[in-house]
Fold:
Amino acid sequence: MNDFHGVFPYLVTPIDGSGRVRSDVLGQLCDDLIKAGVHGLTPLGSTGEFAYLDQAQRSTVVQATIEAAAGRVPVVAGVASTSTADAVAQAKHYQALGASGILAILEAYFPLKDAQIEDYFRAIADAVDLPVVIYTNPQFQRADLTLDVVARLAAHPRIGYIKDASTNTGRLLSIINRCGDDIKVFSASAHIPAAVMLIGGVGWMAGPACIVPRQSVALYELCVAKRWGEALALQKRLWRINEAFARFNLAACIKAGLAIQGYQVGDPVPPQAPLSAEERKVVAAVLAELA
Structure:
């Protein structure tokens, strides 16, 4: 359960108008994703709206995901905060709930220096007895991880993975070249997953896998088998989902797609807005094409 690889959907957080997490809907989604062949589940990623949830809601999401997974696949729970102490407390709590790993995310209001960024991730990894995936997304984060910081963190015995959500695939290759076997790379929706697999990646953690899990798993299996021609043909078809995901609000896009598929996941947490009727048509058209 500690060897993370393959397709890890970034789960949405189903939530009703009163702010109650719909654990039953989340449980059904998790079960369906596992039956579709995904290799793990990631609650409280970007698509899970972690930045818009309170502590109780986050805990409910992680607990519901772990219960639904029932040991069939690893659950890598997102930890995010502007405070090191709070992030450490989250990580310890999710370990106690039964998470298989931690996805460590840094939020920052004021600028941070490399040493402070490194200390944040190191403190999370020091606090738990679980594999840690460090996360970087320069599009959203005020404090990014430099290659020097990544290389130093890769030497930590529990930091074995990085999920990089930059659009720079060359950066991923630099990480792979510099860190070698010390850290394994997961792609994000901002990258072309087949290309990341080709250069040495181990899979992807991304929101779009929630709505096209079967096709995502098929793409991964083609890459593992090094059937690159077939993988590229499938990747070209699936890329339309990634384009829609990049075009619209992350949670709103995937929640709209899941609603079209029959899941009562609700709207994004305000002040985010759901997709408009015209925007939903775009997502519906892509899903119909890939069905």
Summary: The chain has a mean pLDDT of 95. DSSP finds eleven helices and seven strands in the chain. The two ends are 31 Å apart (CA to CA).
